[in-house]
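for ur thesis appendix - GntP family permease domain protein. copy paste whatever u need, i formatted it the way the template wanted (i think)
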Amino acid sequence: MLMIGLPVCAVVAAVGYLASRRVRTDDIVLGATPLGDPPDGTEEPSDEELMVGADPTGPGTVLFLILAPVIQIVIGTVGRMLVPDPSKADSVLSLVGAPLVALLTAALLACVVLGCQQHWSLDQPGRTVDHALPDVAVVVLVAGAGGVFASILVASGAGAALSRALMAVHMPVLLAGFVICLALRASQGSATVAILTTAGLLVDNVAAGGYDALHIALIALAIGFGALGLSHVNDGGFWIFTTCTGLSVQDGLRAWTVLTTVRGLAGFLLTALVWLLA
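the 3d part is after this line
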């Protein structure tokens, strides 16, 4: 998957860049973001607007705080592979590597590191968290609702019915994986849920088809590109993008949604081309 996916994604990135040049931006008016109001372009921002506190946070500190939860999850995941299961060490590593625990630890670490660097008062971390909650509340709500809806689709058999209908018309498994994942992505928002659900629906067909490792990797890539497109208002990533850039919902739909769909289609077409040549 890496040997095929990396060059394909490099071409998809180029296609996305070229497509983004076609998006009209002259009539887009940016609104407020979590960092404040956007500059009006008439004057340069002051040093106080560019820095938080008297001592600006260096890029190394920022990179460390971003990578901290990832490193903690990797330590917990890899560590569990090296210890017997069940054991006390396995339980501890399972707790350490849990995503929620890693993110909570990273948030606390950021408060301590930034607080010491910026000389925050004791109540400043609380005020910072309170200020951030309204911006992430919509994202959390949408992501949670999407996960619940995905569970309903699976429990009701709607996804399996769609899979059987596509196979009944003798749709190639590569195209079926892309279409099913794209439909699930559009309906419930979560790319991860769409990928896992689609893989579960097609696993019997893939196993019965007798595909080699190369073609199985291409099927997985097609499913992944299906999860890339049609990101809209039920996707947490859509709200993160629009909130942090100050875009309205309408502008987000014609920029973010269109470009993610173009990249998804381009990735699938390239994957299909490799399928034909393999």
